[in-house]
Amino acid sequence: MSIFKELVTRVAKDGKTPIKEDTERVIRALGNLSYGECESILDESYGAGWFTSVVANEAHNRLVSAFGTIPQDWRKIVSDIVSLEDLKQRRATTFSGAPYLPSKKEHGPYESAQFLDRGETYTPTEYGRIFEITRKAKANDQIGAFQRWTAEEGKAAGRSINRFVFYDLLSGAAGDGPTMSDAAKLFVAGHSNKSSGSGALSRANLQLMFQTLHAQIGARSEKLFFNGPYYLVVGSTDENYDTALEFTAVQVRLGGTADIVAEPNLYGSGGRHHTEVIGTPYTGVQADAYLIAGDAPTFELGFYQGKETPNLMQESPGTGLAFSHDLYRYRVDMAFGGFPVEWRGMVWHDDA
Length: 352
Fold this sequence. Notes:
Blueprint: H1 2-14, H2 20-29, H3 35-46, H4 50-67, H5 74-77, E1 80-84, E2 90-95, E3 117-122, E4 125-134, H6 135-140, H7 143-171, H8 203-214, E5 230-235, H9 239-249, E6 252-255, E7 261-264, E8 275-280, E9 289-293, E10 299-304, E11 311-314, H10 320-324, E12 327-340, E13 346-349
Parallel strand pairs: 1-10, 5-8
Antiparallel strand pairs: 2-3, 4-12, 5-9, 6-7, 9-13, 10-12, 11-12
Helix pairs in contact: 1-2, 1-3, 4-7
């Protein structure tokens, strides 16, 4: 307590608002005090409402910090991250490539470029939760409980984006993804991105997935070639996850029949088709697998006003339920949306 009083007294005498480092030391010093004691001491030192503001700022920092502890694997397979100015329906547009440069005839003109465009539409969605705590509970509680709540909400926000990308945008409940603007599923024979392999993931099935990927033809009949990196998305709760890790973990594998022969592993580190495994619990069919080219257009994910981390908002003290019911209300929220923009850089292996 004496260290805390010394700190707030020194900052108050300086006649300035505590800087970030001071705020962090204040919060640490307050860790073993009740909310009521903290509020009384700080508001007396800095003015009414100062403590509530400090706690809200610190809680937001903890929210964002905890958000960052959840692996953001979705970033590896999303090709376009955009800022949304509003929450209206958006059209995500992609353009075809160009097959070859045409030859120019002597004294003749160059041909004009012709590109085909196609688009998919989506509407961003707001996500969030409200947390309420009574004045009495807040006064009797330790600040650590409130901080732990904000940390858990930050982790929930991180999981929400991963689930949105891997379930809503990639797999769907049946594994074949969402319905595109051509009225076909993302993964379907007509898109030439469904592997002919079946059963559990194997080296042969992985090879078929690569063959399917590199056999893709562009919108203007141009030959497509993907240089990677490549990502193999598999269900983290399925045995295929361990199998995929075995396929890609080593640079050299042992092969051959009569004799044991060392041969390069195309899918391991340094291999031509070096593939990173992404294990996720969010795909609709955990036994299925997806091969995705990291240099291909795949998905667009848009965040409202470019905010890629969750927000923490507090209801104004003395208004609403805070006034009528002695309730403090906090809200954690995000707003984002997205959709597949192209199917040619992805291949689905159906385990069925």
